[in-house]
Each structure stands twice: as structure tokens, then as C-alpha cells.
Design a protein that fits this description.
about 220 residues; alpha/beta; Rossmann fold; Arc Repressor Mutant, subunit A; 5-stranded parallel sheet; 11 strands; about 20% strand; globular
């Protein structure tokens, strides 16, 4: 999952970037509000984490502009403002949730997971597709009760496909979701991850749709 982080406090931005990356997110970190607004226009993100006070454009201003453009990317607002009126103003601008500073990574990650669930229309914190179960909070996947030994990239790819089973994703969409700006991507990286997932899941779980991309399509046997 690719996340935009807009935070101009360098120490906090670095800490959140490293922490979110360790949790398996691809993170694009920006320190400027206007640049964040541009990134949200040009790039598709699973979610955005925006500081309230940013140079050139505040978090609420960015969010209001997004919503006017019908950009429904889930947004978590970081704020040192703990007054009720300020929190209400942030939510009324279009933020989906907020975290009051000082920021704790565990809380931030939990709120991000909740935003992603709501964006997908999912209530259950466990993703279940037939015999396959994913627990995003633990970044763990099992098949018929057996733990799958997945790399961070393999898990991220599987979770993306599992959130929308049957939906086809192009290689470019998967690359964009899995890798941030600062990551070099080998031309066959997605194909390699798909190959490894098929080895661990079984060939029937992931379809290749020629000229389109890949989709998670469990067979009737897998759903039994």
C-alpha cells in the first residue's frame, strides 16, 4: 500500500517514514503543502497522512481542494491542536480522522488500517476469501489454517489483490502501489512477486489476464 506523508518536522517525518515502511507501506514523504497537493493530484495513494501546519498550504486546505476535485483518498490529519473546535474544523474540511501530536506509530498505523477498511467497505479487520485469511494488523496470511511465509512485498501485493478479489490490476498499478519514489523497480519485479505467491498459494489463486494484468480469483475448490 502506497501512502503519502506530508510532514515538515524533519525528525517526525523521518521517524514516521521509517516506521511505516517497516510495517510494509510504501511511503512518499513530502515536507511542503503545495507539493503534497500536487502529488495527490498526480499519483494514486491508498491513503494520505497530512500535517495541519505545512508550508504554502495547510492540511485542511489540501483536503478541501481534494474533496472539491472529487478525490476520495482517505486522509488522516496530524495536528497539535487539541481544541474541539479545531478538530471539528479538520473533519469538516474533509479529513476522515485525525491524530493529536505527539504521534505514536501504533495508533497512527491502527487508524490507517481503519481508514483503509472503511474505504473498502470492510467491517471485519480480517480479510477472508475462501480458505485464505489475511490479518493486516499483524501482516499475517494463512491458507487453510497454515501460515504463509511471505516477504513484505509479497504480503503487500497479496493484500492489495485480496481487498478487491476479482478486480484486475495492471503491472503499472501494482508497481505504483508497492514502491515509493525513492525505490528503483526492476522491470520484472511484479512478475517475480506473482510467481512466488503462486508457489506459496497454489496456481489457481491468481489469474493472469492477458493485456490487462492480475486478479485474485479463488477457484471453487479454494472456496470450499
Amino acid at each position: 500500500m502506497r501512502i503519502l506523508l506530508a510532514e515538515d518536522d524533519l525528525a517526525l517525518g523521518q521517524a514516521l517514514t521509517v516506521g511505516l515502511q517497516r510495517l510494509g507501506y510504501a511511503v512518499d514523504w513530502i515536507t511542503d503543502g503545495a507539493a503534497a497537493a500536487t502529488a495527490l493530484t498526480d499519483t494514486t495513494y491508498a491513503a494520505a497522512v497530512l500535517d495541519w501546519n505545512l508550508p504554502r498550504s495547510s492540511g485542511p486546505e489540501i483536503i478541501a481542494g481534494m474533496r472539491r476535485r472529487k478525490n476520495d483518498t482517505p486522509v488522516l490529519l496530524l495536528t497539535a491542536r487539541d481544541e474541539l473546535g479545531d478538530r471539528v474544523a479538520g473533519l469538516d474540511a474533509g479529513a476522515d480522522d485525525y491524530v493529536v501530536k505527539p504521534v505514536h506509530l501504533d495508533e497512527l498505523a491502527a487508524r490507517l488500517r481503519a481508514l483503509l477498511r472503511r474505504a473498502d467497505g470492510q467491517i471485519d479487520p480480517v480479510i477472508r476469501i475462501g480458505a485464505l485469511e489475511l490479518v493486516p494488523a499483524a501482516r499475517n496470511a494463512t491458507l487453510s489454517g497454515t501460515n504463509l511465509e511471505l516477504t513484505a512485498r509479497e504480503y503487500a501485493l497479496l493484500e492489495m489483490l485480496a481487498r478487491h478479489p476479482g478486480r484486475a490490476y495492471s503491472r503499472g498499478q501494482l508497481e505504483e502501489a508497492l514502491y515509493g519514489w525513492d525505490r528503483e523497480v526492476a522491470s520484472n519485479a511484479v512478475e517475480v512477486h506473482i510467481h512466488h505467491l503462486r508457489q506459496k498459494l497454489g496456481a489457481d489463486w491468481i489469474d493472469t489476464l492477458r493485456g490487462i494484468g492480475y486478479a485474485l480469483r479463488p477457484s471453487k475448490e479454494n472456496n470450499a
